[in-house]
Write a structure and sequence with these properties.
It is built from five helices and eleven strands; from the N terminus they run ββαβααβαβββββαββ. It is α/β, with parallel strands linked by helices. The longest helix is centred in the middle third of the chain and has 13 residues.
């Protein structure tokens, strides 16, 4: 089903665990449980082990406050940059109200707790946080998820300059695919 505009990626791992990256944008505020919550319930999900909010913008935060309200959540990871607006305020209030663990991430960290999977943080580059005038997209969390022969890269809204930095630092390689450039490294079975 369509969740509207914005990013929202649900990763269910074969050996257990549920990772939610971003929460799409919430357009229909008349419904108590937005489409994302209803989708998770239809899939039989009873717990979200980790949420990654790639950066503090409404089209990525979206339904995350309602996810926190409806499901136990192990930990919320974020880029460490501050944001503004109703969506950011609502998300911050929900995290505080639900009492979940909230952790900023930096390049080189590994997210643990998903057996058989390696979830590596490639961005944000901590050097960027010193520049508060940068667009918040420069601070987007970039994840590389590897599981067996499968590997994917989730890039938030990183601008071209950050993509080029990742390639220049040999963290990813460019690979041409139908529909544009796709950044991936060590991928033998990509979607």
């Amino acid at each position: 089903p369509s969740l509207g505009q914005g990013d929202c990626i649900l990763v269910e791992f074969p050996k257990g665990g549920c990772l939610l990256v971003d929460g799409a944008e919430r357009f229909d505020t008349s419904q108590r449980a937005p489409e994302l919550v209803r989708l998770l319930l239809r899939k039989g999900i009873t717990r979200v082990d980790a949420i990654v909010n790639t950066h503090p913008q409404s089209d990525h935060i979206g339904c995350l406050p309602e996810v926190l309200e409806h499901f136990p959540v192990g930990v919320v990871y974020h880029c460490g940059a501050s944001g503004q607006g109703e969506a950011v305020r609502s998300f911050e209030e929900a995290m505080e109200r639900e009492g979940c663990e909230v952790l900023p991430v930096r390049r080189g960290q590994i997210i643990e707790g998903f057996p058989g999977a390696k979830i590596e943080i490639l961005c944000p580059n901590p050097d960027y946080l010193a520049y508060s005038q940068l667009d918040v997209n420069y601070h987007s969390v970039v994840l590389r998820i590897e599981y067996g022969d499968f590997s994917c890269l989730l890039t938030g809204d990183i601008p071209a300059e950050v993509e080029q930095e990742l390639v220049a630092e040999n963290l990813v390689v460019k690979k041409s695919t139908i529909g544009g450039l796709f950044l991936i490294k060590r991928c033998t079975n990509c979607m």
